[in-house]
Amino acid sequence: MFMFYTSWAEAMNFETLGSAGFMKLLRDCQILDSKFTVVDADLIFVENARMNLTQSDDNLNILADKRMTYVDFMIALQQIAQRKYTTQPSADLALSLLLSRDILPFASKQVSSCCLEDS
Which among 108, 118, 93, 116 is positioned nearest to 1, based on CA atoms? Predict the structure, then answer.
C-alpha cells in the first residue's frame, strides 16, 4: 500500500509519501469520517513528515516539501488507529484493527481491479 500511494502522484517514487498520496489513501480506505477528519489527518501528516529538499529541474532553486518515509507512515497509522479505535487497550491492537478492518480490505480490492484490467 505504501509504495502504491508513493508512486500515485510521482510515477517513479517508491520511497517517500507526500500529503496528496496520504490523503488519497485515507479517502480510498474510507478512514475519514466525523470522528477523524481531514484536519486531523493533516495534523498527523505534518507532525510525522520530514522536510525533503530537492533541486529544481533548472538547477536554480531548491524545492522543499514534507514527505513521510515508511517508518513515518507506520507511526502515523498507529496515531490514526489510536484515534479511531479508542476503546482498545493497546496501540498495537488499535493498529491491527485499523489495518484489518479499514486498510487491507481496500488493498485486496485494488489488486482485484488491477488484475481484472490487465486480463
Answer: 108
Calpha distance 52→56 (Å, rounded): 12
In degrees to the nearest 10, what's the CA dihedral of 24, 30, 34, 37?
-20
Give the three-state DSSP class for 29: coil
- Among residues 96, 106, 102, 116, which one has the least CA distance to residue 35? 102
Could you tell me if residue 12 is inside a domain?
yes
Q: Indicate the burial class of 50 (C-beta count within 10 angstroms; 0-12, 13-18, 19 or more).
A: exposed
With CA atoms as reference, report the closest residue to 41 among 25, 65, 57: 25
> pTM value?
0.80
Domain containing residue 65:
1-77
Least confident of 3-17, 30-44, 51-65: 51-65
For residue range 68-96, list pLDDT tens digits in order. 999 999 999 999 999 999 999 999 999 99
Q: Is residue 56 part of a domain?
A: yes
Structurally, the chain folds into a number of domains equal to 1
